[in-house]
UniProtKB/TrEMBL annotation:
It comes from Acer yangbiense. It is an enzyme of class 6 (ligase). This is argininosuccinate synthase. PANTHER family: ARGININOSUCCINATE SYNTHASE. Its EC number is 6.3.4.5. InterPro entries: Arginosuc_syn_C (IPR048268), Arginosuc_syn_N (IPR048267), Arginosuc_synth (IPR001518), Arginosuc_synth_CS (IPR018223), Arginosuc_synth_type_1_subfam (IPR023434), AS_cat/multimer_dom_body (IPR024074), Rossmann-like_a/b/a_fold (IPR014729), Sphingomyelin_synth-like_dom (IPR025749).
Length: 534
């Protein structure tokens, strides 16, 4: 199905007519020429499929949460286009936007798509036609000439924003983002740091560093208890492990701080927020480029070209990426680790600990009840000195590429071992199998940043229900990097010594097994008979 240039005739007559009605779907044309008419889109159905996807995503993010009556507006930008949602009831409003772009133009196009709400979005003197919201999307675009900005965007190379809140860690990336935002958007930058247990050293001097980078203010909020209680422990209860190894430390921290993970969180909580994603817009190609940019703008950064690790730390784990780790054949250097000692250097004497659990959630260590954050911090210290919780893996990223990462999760490794062992007492076989299968999808959702997805929330309700009786304690032995279970007990244990004992014959007679075996093996007997022609 080819679309006629500049019209909706084939859409009205085609299968998409029910979706894109002329009264709520508007095309704009570029003064540089109608690229649709010039043959850039000969496969009209594919184009409409792309627009349809953007339309569905936008409507699900916006209209489902607030009672908007929306128009859909499409504006051209050379061989790219941007899809808007505007509110019919509020002339001048611009609810949301998305883009459908050709890969060769993505950088050029993406450079200006972060701005909306009446400001520049992207394009070449584009005028949107047939819409009652001209003021909202008015002359959406500046010239394509490098460095030239429209009157609506003076104040920055890419546009003008009044204020941006930056999720700030003080690391290389966020340190250079501060001057980059000021240079490109002429905006005030407020840095926000969530204390999720990254350590006192990580927070020391952070305000001075943020202001030295160009921020007007740093806000630090202690979210450790909330992080562990509302995000880590539900994942622990669900048994969520990504690709057999990864305990999801970085992914769990994103929702509480609020890549794709950040943006999906914002979309779910407030779709009207404007997200600026510098890593999709800037020309910085790698960490060495970032270091050069930092030096140019006198930004203090904690790395050198000779030793470059990308780290992410919180109360649950510490991740290491980059430098020699980019070659999966290289062994990590011994001095890279920060939360745990080398197992070879751990104490020669094992340590025994007891973890108390109530309804699938940890509550105590060695009989001492602790808050969620305090409990995890205690286990990090204990596990770290025994070299517990080191993971070296190659994982599949959300975008499809593989990445090598090394993780330290001492407390988390201990808790997973304890929780899983207690379930062996309190859950029957079928329930455990279903729980394990759901845990795989649960982990994928968390890894992909879909914490607030209704599917994950529904899975959480299931996990909460089936672990109601997962209460008791587990004793573990920690020794030179290993965690061994030495004991477990629960008032809801499905294990009965009088039934399981090889000595007892009071509960059932061993002869009862004959009938069961005969029926259980029936399919195999039938197949054997068939093969032998019996």
């Amino acid at each position: 199905m080819d679309l006629e240039p500049g019209t909706m005739d084939s859409v009205r007559s085609g299968p998409y007519g029910q979706i894109f009605r002329p009264d709520n779907f508007v095309f704009g044309q570029s003064s540089a020429g109608n690229y649709w008419a010039n043959g850039h889109y000969t496969k009209g159905a594919e184009l409409i499929d792309s627009i349809h996807l953007s339309y569905c995503l936008l409507v699900s993010s916006v209209a489902s949460r607030k009672h908007y009556t929306v128009d859909v507006v499409v504006a051209w930008y050379t061989v790219n286009l941007v899809v808007f949602l505007v509110d019919k009831k509020l002339p001048g409003s611009l609810l949301y936007h998305d883009k459908v772009s050709c890969p060769t133009k993505f950088q050029e196009f993406g450079a200006r798509t972060s701005e909306l709400h009446g400001h520049v979005v992207a394009g070449n003197n584009c005028n949107v036609v047939r819409t009652r919201n001209r003021q909202a999307i008015k002359a959406v675009l500046s010239s394509e000439k490098e460095g030239k900005v429209s009157p609506a965007t003076n104040g920055g190379l890419r546009g003008k924003l009044k204020k941006v809140v930056l999720a700030y860690s003080g690391g290389l990336d966020t340190s250079v983002i501060v001057p980059w935002l000021r240079e490109n958007y002429g905006c005030e930058v407020v840095c926000f740091t969530a204390d999720v247990g990254q350590g006192i050293k990580e927070l020391e001097g952070l305000e001075e560093k943020a202001k030295a980078s160009g921020a007007c203010q740093l806000v630090v909020k202690d979210l450790q208890e909330e992080f562990v209680r509302d995000f880590i422990f539900p994942c622990l209860r669900a048994g969520a492990i990504y690709e057999r190894k990864y305990l999801l430390g970085t992914s769990m921290a994103r929702p509480v701080i609020a890549k794709v993970r950040f943006e999906l969180t914002f979309f779910a909580l407030n779709p009207e927020l404007n997200v600026v994603a510098p890593w999709r817009e800037w020309d910085i190609q790698g960490r060495e480029d970032a270091i050069e940019y930092a030096k140019k703008h006198n930004v203090p950064v904690p790395v050198t070209k000779k030793s470059i690790y990308s780290r992410d730390r919180n109360l649950w784990h510490l991740s290491h990426e980059g430098d020699i780790l980019e070659d999966p054949a290289n062994e990590p250097k011994k001095d890279m680790y920060m939360m745990s000692v080398d197992p070879e250097d751990a104490p020669d004497k094992p340590e025994y600990i007891e973890i108390g659990i109530v309804s699938g959630l940890p509550v105590s260590v060695n009989g001492k009840e602790l808050s969620p954050a305090s409990l995890l911090a205690e286990l990090n210290e204990i596990g770290g000195r025994h070299g517990i919780g080191r993971i070296d893996m190659v994982e599949n990223r959300l975008v499809g590429m593989k990445s090598r990462g090394v993780y330290e999760t001492p407390g988390g490794t201990i808790l997973f071992a304890a929780a899983r062992e207690l379930e062996s007492l309190t859950l029957d076989r079928e329930t455990m199998q279903v729980k394990d299968s759901i845990a795989l999808k649960y982990a994928e959702l968390v890894y992909a940043g879909r914490w607030f997805d209704p599917l994950r929330e529904s899975m959480d309700a299931f996990m909460e229900k089936i672990t109601e009786t997962t209460t008791g304690s587990v004793t573990l032995k920690l020794y030179k990097g290993s965690v061994s279970v030495t004991g477990r007990k629960s008032p809801y244990s499905l294990y009965r010594e009088d039934i399981s004992s090889f000595e007892s014959g009071h509960i059932y007679n061993q002869a009862d097994a004959a009938g069961f075996i005969k029926l259980y093996g029936l399919p195999m007997r039938v197949r054997a008979m068939l093969e032998k022609g019996i």
